[in-house]
Amino acid sequence: MGIRRKGRRGGAKGRAVRALGMLLLAALLPARARSASEDVFLFPYFKDPGTQGVFLLASADGRSFQHVNGGNAIFEVPAGVTRDPSIARGPDGLFHMVWTSAPKQIGHASSPDLVNWSAPQSIPVWGPEAHVLNTWAPELFYDQAAQEFLIVWASTDRDRFPTGSSEPASAPDGGSFEHRLYATTTRDFESFSPTRLFFDPGFNVIDGMIAYDAVGGRFAMAFKDERIFDADGRPDPQKNIRLAFSDEAQGVYGDVTSSLTGGGLAFSQWAEGPTLIAVEGGWRLYFDTYLDWSTVYNAYESEDLESWIDVSDTLEFPEISGRLQHGTVFRTSRQSIGWVVPEPATGALVAAGLLGLALRRRRCAETRAAPRCSRSRAPGSPSTTRSGLTMPSAGSRR
After folding, report:
1. What is the pTM of this model?
2. Among 51, 69, 326, 377, which one has the highest count of C-beta atoms within 10 angstroms of its own C-beta?
């Protein structure tokens, strides 16, 4: 994984000039042409402890987000929690949402427009005999080839993984968690395939999220490396985002990358809740540095899923009562939802944003300021410790 953006032909200066040209061109385009894409970026999230429902942000460009429904919840359950919501749209136009609801269950509801929802249901992904401690952060993906939904989540199964590598005494049984990703499939959310081990890279992982790479003809999965300790029990905190790849949506995933985000003893850079989404010109990776309360959410961008640049300072969020947690960004057509969402940005604003990004990349190229061009860190770098570990005072939002 590169730590700064690769230059195109013509260099950073040329990119800035091209962006300026787009700025001038946008001013001449009719309003309809400036908003050729009718897609919107939607950002469902929850607020701790997860009993207040699911909230929604919307954006025309995936950078500047605004409240939907006046900042009020768009979905609530009579009792229980709706943590870690994930939404996907099926081929029939119906939206489906899954969320963390119980130690051995996943919540589900559907909606034609994200306004009117079906009654919530529980999906029992584990039998009563399973020695499973938790079922966290289900992610929903529609597999077009198989014509079915894939649900992926993280669990600690003590039958498979009796010892853990995360925070000491963090699990309900007094030990530490040792997660892997598990999965089930369904076409109708009435019958489900047997739960299976989906992704085991040989270490503790959570928050698996899948996207299709049309250029590469492959599937990419962003996930969190959840390790605090190495295989010998020595402190070696990771807490970062990585990628894995597969030729098919349902695996097998391999070619695990090095860390894309920070980690180690830089607690404020510990990351989770990734969303990988295709955007014009490449990719955007959203993620939460959950111990850094000075930020709402973070984003990196890439042309090729290899070289990344930190564009977190281009994100804008409204005032939120409480902390936005584990959002999952997706795109859909403006006409498919019943909520009033922001109008697309004018061409001038879009071009101005591109110009600013091009100039910033030029500064990165000229100064080689790696910490702001990317926070990638390869395993074993100086930020990794082999000595004692003092944990941060704030725990994971889990």
Report:
1. 0.82
2. 326
